[in-house]
Write a structure and sequence with these properties.
The complex is a heterodimer of chains A (about 350) and B (about 130). Chain A has helices spanning about 10-20, 75-90, 105, 120-125, 135-145, 165-180, 185-200, 240-245, 265-275, 280-310, 315-320, 325-340; strands at about 25-35, 40-50, 55-65, 95-100, 110-115, 205-210, 215-220, 225, 235. With about 350 residues, chain A is α+β, with helices and mostly antiparallel strands. In chain A, helix 6 packs parallel to helix 10 (about 280-310). The longest helix of chain A has 27 residues, at about 280-310. By secondary structure, chain B is mostly helical. Chain B has helices at about 5-20, 30-65, 75-95, 105-120. The chains are: A alpha+beta (about 350), B mainly alpha (about 130).
Chain lengths: ~350, ~130
């Protein structure tokens, strides 16, 4: 057994799953720790279900919340609700199965989803002689479908951006997450100042993934199979997801292919406009791409602190904290490009 | 107290041995961790070697903006404190809007600052 699924935890987990599946019995087998998920823990497993509507064997993933919560991330029950809403909207996601609020079973709330096929590893996804134009277009369509979910036609219990709209709320959040780092680091100070001065006026608010990028979706034979990692989802400006997707941080060495290292922006944008019911506002995307670097820097700082504070000692978290100069370099390249284009 | 070899040389020797003898034979399921260890040791080694040089580069980049004198004799903690003080001053100016109309000189300074930090954190990104 792996991680929190100890031999002691297993019987309670199996009893809970049997209840959730309406089955006579569920056996949890072949548990393995899956890669990715610096914040949540992902465990792969096989469920042998006896009786009930799911009778049979199922490859699943259990997603368990972190020991120390992140300011930006949803708890597992809300993440599960978002996953269900995305699936209803026609977004390719791993099929959500059950969510468990009881923290006594695995040490934190968790949910179970069907395991989707394909690879998410950024380096592998971008490895392709020719640009992957169809994949970029399908990712654009996917995002467009997600962005049709609006606050008033869903009962997702997620906070709406307040005072000044999504852009202003984002700048406030990043500054708070950085917890004083922008008073000492002039690149962060300038980034936040630039965002504040150039913030776009409030506009549409839709369901955003907020970590929609290469590395967080599964690809099999060049085709999208599922979008993963919904823990940062929330109501925001739809251009936020496009800016995040195109940020240099997620091109995995293929900096020439501005849409996630896989193709040109044009393919992503064209797919988006097919399904979203709105056109892409390039200037707004550029603002949100600048915001992406500040947000990623803030997250990297928080990750580093999870290590240094002693709450969660981890070499991976420690090294994430040292990514800040790299993120700052990308921010400066982007801001110079905007200035030269203006 | 002086130790011979010092921390820098010990770390360099450990990193060399780790890369030559351990990294090639770690099993695939431990390779990610092994690469993280090599990366962390390499960053620490570059920091031990180059922190003062980075501090001087950052100080030199900020002085035209914050109007203070460079002090080339500073090193170690005194240098770090000085760089920190200059950075705080520059951050306060930025937040007050001093560069809203013309950010040209500021961007040059920020580029130099980031280059100095990348020389420690990830020097591969300085190429090209």
């Amino acid at each position: 057994m792996a991680g929190p699924i100890t031999d002691e935890a297993l019987p309670a987990l199996e009893r809970w799953l049997a209840g959730a599946a309406g089955a006579g019995r569920v056996a949890v087998e072949s548990v393995e720790r899956l890669g990715g998920g610096a914040i949540s823990l992902n465990l792969g497993a096989a469920l042998a279900v006896s009786g009930g509507p799911l009778d049979g064997r199922h490859a699943v993933v259990l997603r368990i919340g972190p020991a120390s919560g992140m300011a930006a991330s949803l708890d597992k029950m809300h993440e599960f609700a978002v996953l269900c809403a995305a699936r209803t909207a026609g977004v390719a996601v791993p099929e959500p199965l059950f969510a468990c609020e009881d923290a006594d079973i695995l040490g934190g709330p968790f949910y179970v989803m069907r395991r989707a096929a394909g690879t998410a590893a950024g380096r592998l996804v971008v490895r392709c002689e020719a640009p992957q134009r169809d994949l970029a277009r399908e990712l654009g369509r996917t995002l467009g479908r997600l962005h049709r979910v609006r606050p008033d036609d869903d009962d997702l219990d997620l906070p709406l951006p307040r005072d000044g709209g999504a852009a202003a709320a984002a700048v406030r959040d990043y500054r708070a997450w950085m917890d004083g780092a922008a008073d000492r680091d002039p690149v962060l100070a300038w980034g936040l100042r630039w965002l504040q001065v150039h913030a776009p006026a409030p506009g549409d608010v839709v369901l955003c993934h907020r970590d929609f990028r290469t590395g967080n979706y599964l690809v099999e034979d060049g085709r999208l199979t599922a979008v993963l990692d919904w823990e940062f989802a929330g109501w925001s400006d739809p251009m936020e997801d496009l800016g995040w997707f195109c940020a240099r941080s997620w091109r995995f060495g293929r900096t020439d292919r501005e849409a996630g290292g896989i193709a040109d922006r044009a393919d992503l944008y064209a797919g988006y406009e097919e399904t979203a019911g709105r056109s892409v506002d390039a200037a707004r995307v550029a603002w949100w791409e600048a915001a992406a670097y500040l947000r990623w820097a803030a997250i990297a700082i928080m990750q580093g602190r999870r290590h240094t504070s002693g709450t969660e000692p981890s070499l991976e978290l420690a090294l994430t904290g040292r990514l800040v100069p790299e993120i700052e370099r990308d921010l400066l390249i982007h801001l110079r490009a905007i200035e030269q284009g203006a | 107290m002086r130790n011979d070899p010092d921390a820098r040389r010990l770390l360099a020797a450990a990193l060399d041995a780790y890369r030559a003898e351990v990294l090639p034979v770690v099993p695939p399921e431990r390779r990610y961790t092994a690469l993280m260890i090599a990366n962390a040791m390499a960053i620490a080694a570059r920091e031990l070697d180059g922190l003062d040089a980075a501090g001087h580069a950052m100080m030199a980049a900020m002085i035209p903006l914050v109007g203070s004198d460079a002090d080339e004799s500073l090193s170690g903690a005194a240098l770090s404190d000085r760089v920190d003080a200059l950075q705080r001053r520059l951050c306060a100016d930025i937040a007050a809007g001093a560069y809203d109309r013309d950010a040209g000189a500021l961007l040059d300074c920020l580029d130099a600052t980031v280059r100095a930090r990348l020389a420690i954190a990830n020097p591969k990104l300085l190429e090209g």
